[in-house]
Amino acid sequence: MLYRRQYIHCVLQASYTQFAPPLPRTMTHAVMSAFKNLNGYDIERTYNGLDAAFRPMHKFSSDVEPLSNTEVRTDYLPTASAGILTAKYLIDASVIAQLKNRDAFVRDFRSFSTTVFSTLATVQRAINSISSKFKIG
To answer: How large is the average pLDDT for residues 42-54?
Structure first.
């Protein structure tokens, strides 16, 4: 459950980087705070960690640092490698510590990062739809 919550958080936060600060933080906190039971989930820690990865000020573990996927780039977010950085952050911050099949995420990073990228694209379509009806920011 914690991994799913962190996945949702990271994908939404990455998607919200298209808006000027402080809106991305506000939007991410609003969505994540809507969960009824956070069970100790630290929204601020995750936010700051992924934000550092985008700057890039986050030091990934030695297993994660070299991972890449040249097919996953966004042209609608300020950081073209948002999908890659989000996938790497999730593996480093969540998958390695919480999931038994963690090695599969590293071995098949291309597949995992493509899934993250697809989720970012889905969120972007939702943002575009909402933006066509309401002003965001």
So the answer is: 96
